[in-house]
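Hi R.,

As promised on Friday, here is the backbone we talked about, encoded as structure tokens. Could you run it through your design pipeline when you get a chance and send me back a sequence?
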């Protein structure tokens, strides 16, 4: 059999195996009777199945790979790799700060990029923080929120995890702001993406273990934590107080809506 045909046969078998695994893992989801009643999560039944698939993929593939990465790569090198990928994110931060009319924030992001790319040896060392240039986290989802866009329903994206409609849309323009997207040849680009995902998973090993141990309903815990985190990021650490009650019978930014529209623009600041 020619080599090309053998590769196609192997690819077909691998695809079939992955599809079977996806169906098997998705079928393991536990869906409560009242799923979908939360107005912020109308697609809960589908979301739980996707979450079950993501959890299985993480448990049987990503987590073992991340543990192997931690075991094989010395801490100093892992820190350098993490800092380097974080440094690339300053491009996204700066552009979104400009789109939100935050010139000082954009200047901070740009300063961090320049300092860490030069004095920090391509971002390996975070010299900028020591100089007082604190890291900011901005993305296009937060830019949409700044200009009044609401979160939309909660969704779980295959392989990527929790999101909402607004943030899912924001991932598209953000993908073009990553310098990795312009690396050539393409195989090197995919290698960098793979290393970045493994490195990020390794950083979250302790956090995910705590969630698995502490949460009675892991899906609900992650969903509520996601909304709370994004609300805090939208208001740069100073979110409005949660509403006492809402139509869903839940309180707080994780369950019900905060006072005012979820996508209400943040007050103008000088950062």
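Update: got your reply. Pasting your designed sequence below so it's all in one thread:
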């Amino acid at each position: 059999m020619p080599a090309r045909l053998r590769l196609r046969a192997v690819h077909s078998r691998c695809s079939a195996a992955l599809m079977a695994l996806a169906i098997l893992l998705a079928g393991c989801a536990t869906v409560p009777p009242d799923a979908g009643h939360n107005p912020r999560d109308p697609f809960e039944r589908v979301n739980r199945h996707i979450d079950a698939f993501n959890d299985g993929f993480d448990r049987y593939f990503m987590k073992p790979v991340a543990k192997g990465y931690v075991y094989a790569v010395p801490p100093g090198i892992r820190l350098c790799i993490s800092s380097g990928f974080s440094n690339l994110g300053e491009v996204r931060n700066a552009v979104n700060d400009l789109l939100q009319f935050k010139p000082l924030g954009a200047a901070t992001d740009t300063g961090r990029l320049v300092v860490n790319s030069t004095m920090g040896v391509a971002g390996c060392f975070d010299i900028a923080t020591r100089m007082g240039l604190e890291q900011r986290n901005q993305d296009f989802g937060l830019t949409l929120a700044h200009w009044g866009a609401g979160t939309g329903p909660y969704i779980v994206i295959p392989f990527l995890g929790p999101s909402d409609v607004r943030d899912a849309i924001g991932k598209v323009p953000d993908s073009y702001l990553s310098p990795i997207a312009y690396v050539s040849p393409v195989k090197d680009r995919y290698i960098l993406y793979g290393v970045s995902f493994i490195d990020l998973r390794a950083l979250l090993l302790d956090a995910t273990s705590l969630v698995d141990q502490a949460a009675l309903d892991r899906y609900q815990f992650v969903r509520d934590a996601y909304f709370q985190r994004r609300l805090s990021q939208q208001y740069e650490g100073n979110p409005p107080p949660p509403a006492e009650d809402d139509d869903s019978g839940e309180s707080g930014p994780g369950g019900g809506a905060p006072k005012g529209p979820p996508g209400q623009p943040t007050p103008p600041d000088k950062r």
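One thing I noticed while checking it: Confidence is low (pLDDT under 50) at residues 246-271.

Thanks again,
M.
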